[in-house]
Design goal:
With 364 residues, this protein is an alpha+beta fold. Helices cover 24% and strands 34% of the residues. It is built from 9 helices and 17 strands. The strands form 2 sheets. Strands 6-7-8-5-1-4-3-2-9 form a 9-stranded mixed sheet. The model has no long low-confidence stretch (mean pLDDT 94). The structure holds fe (ii) ion. Fe (ii) ion binds next to strand 10 and strand 14.
């Protein structure tokens, strides 16, 4: 692409700060079918924290806990609960990525540095994003180790089978009242992204908790970040509930792609992952709304998998319940069959399902 000053090769990994990294890693192995890859902690010379790296196909997740209460990681977990700290993006040149973005107004989180061991060198740098979230830039073309210097291979005898999760499709941020356009212009000016889709509160019945959203995409489309802000509705916006329990702005959901959503979700459910349910009536007029689809309706209805169509094709999607006790971060499982959009046609059914959960929590 012409003038792409920040060429991105994709999402490198997503790092969560959590209260108990050892148990979080076990949950993602057991429930989502991730495989243990690497570990860093006191035994490897990282005295103040422990990090577990798990992967599945192109997906890599890192779970990190600090070992002492006064550590900044512990403070962030106290503030936000278990949460996404870093969306790491793979680049050819981490120093250039940092220079290009900080020159355009990004605040530096970490100046460019090189980490080396006998498997080679990883370049990294980082800039600040909304809330305490950051973007890391990772350059690993000269590295052949398990994850990065400082980590050792993590092998256990407990290796639940994968569930068909492939890569990060998109990663959604919730920002405060009237902050969406600020972060849209951050992605435009600082990172060279384009706004590819917008939703406002008129896309969503005002009976239901409203939000506004703009989807930002990088030049090659490998990396997409929808940004949500709350909107006034008759009821408390789901984004507002998030902001309250998260204690600020942060990542709301990560969408994980699969090639066979029925198989993947069936497996996830078997392993205890909980999903939002839409009423059976959602499926009554599905074909009228989205036309013919390749999948049998019955399993979709059984599991609550949603379908939406756009000019390019259709998509199937389902949303997990929050994966911690705070009503904050959750996952979306998505299978695209041509569609490039994000399931706007499902907003109403989905928001009603979210509202039922909010109501149970007394936050509406
Ligand atoms: Fe999504």
């Amino acid at each position: 692409m012409e003038n792409d000053f920040l060429p991105l090769l994709g999402t490198d990994y997503i790092e969560f700060y959590v209260g108990n990294a050892k148990q979080a890693a076990h949950y993602y192995k057991t429930a989502f079918g991730f495989q243990g890859i690497a570990y860093a902690g006191p035994e490897t010379g990282m005295k103040d924290r422990a990090s577990y790296v798990v992967s599945q196909n192109q997906l890599t997740l890192v779970f990190t806990s600090a070992l002492r209460p006064d550590h900044p990681i512990s403070q962030q977990v106290l503030q936000h609960g278990d949460s996404v700290k870093a969306i790491a993006l793979r680049v050819e040149d981490a120093e250039k990525a940092w220079k290009e973005t900080t020159q355009r107004g990004a605040l530096s989180e970490m100046e460019p540095r090189k980490l080396s061991d006998n498997a080679g060198t990883v370049g990294m740098s980082a800039i600040k994003l909304y809330g305490d979230t950051i973007h890391l830039f990772i350059e690993r073309k000269k590295y052949s180790g398990v994850f990065m210097p400082g980590y050792i291979g993590w092998e256990t005898e407990y290796n639940p089978s994968p569930t068909g999760l492939l890569y990060v499709d998109h990663c959604v941020g919730n920002v405060g009242w009237n902050q969406m356009n600020r972060w849209v212009s951050f992605y435009e000016k600082v990172m060279g992204f384009k706004n590819i889709l917008s939703f406002d509160d008129t896309d969503i019945s005002t009976e239901y908790s409203a939000l506004m959203s703009k989807v930002m995409s990088n030049g090659n489309g490998f990396v997409k970040f929808p940004i949500n802000e709350p909107a006034e509705g008759k009821r408390k916006s789901q984004v507002e509930e998030f902001l309250e329990f998260f204690n600020g702005e942060g990542v709301q959901h990560v969408a994980l792609a699969t090639k066979d959503i029925v198989k993947t979700v069936r497996e996830l459910m078997k392993r205890g992952v909980e999903f939002l349910k839409v009423p059976g009536s959602y499926y009554d007029d599905l074909e009228a709304r989205v036309g013919k689809i390749d999948e049998d309706l019955e399993p979709l209805k059984d599991m609550g998998i949603l379908v939406d169509r756009d000019p390019d094709g259709y998509l199937l999607q389902i949303f997990s319940k929050p994966v911690q006790d705070r009503p904050t971060v959750f996952f979306e499982i998505i299978q695209r069959k041509g569609a490039k959009s994000f399931g706007k046609g499902n907003f109403k059914a989905l928001f009603e399902a979210i509202e039922r959960e909010q109501e149970k929590r007394g936050n509406i």
